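Data card: per-record layout.
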Amino acid sequence: MFSRRSALVSLPLSMSLCLRALTAGLALCSAAVFAQNGKTEVLWLGQAATRITTPTGKVIMIDPWLTSNPKTPAGYKVLVKITAVHAEHSSELAYKNAATGKDEVHPGGEPVGFIIEMENGFKVWHMGDTGVFGDMRLIGDMYRPDLVLIPIGGHFVMPPADAAMVVRDMIKPKFALPIHYGTTPQLRGTPAEFEAALGKAPGTPRMLVVQPGEKVDF
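The structure for this 218-residue chain is written out next.
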């Protein structure tokens, strides 16, 4: 099953940053992944691939050439499988043009969610920022996620009733954890509304609610 502890679960933005940084040869992931005793841990994995874990549990991967590295120990060659899947959302990059002094908005690429398969087969679907789309059912059928992290805030993303319909009728995971709510006045959807919309029929996914700084272990 699962237990709750005080730590920070990875967020979609930090996940995206980690994935992008990996392609550049440097990843900084602020998740308390490894148990620490107030010490700095340095793990060398062959050639220049190095994992540094800070005393508070932050993990830095430098030059992470692992899978085809002949010197990487076998236990570190098998990575957690991550698959990008569709999300339905706008994607824009807004910034001030230093040359003109004007605010500009440009296309920011395709929005995505992530299916993450653990070494033991447990699957997490982090939906990212998304509204409802029909292929959520197909993605659920293809990957059979155990846990879905689903936005419920209602502004730019699904409201609680839509999110409940998605996990109850389309995806049918074991667990549903609401995200993307409560940080701005526009994100009015609440876990209580999500739970009420889910209902209590047999086979309904179990809703989990955590506070920022808490973690759920499976």
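Known properties of this structure: Helices lie at 12-23, 136-143, 160-171, 191-198. The chain is about 20% helix and 30% strand.

See the next section for split statistics.
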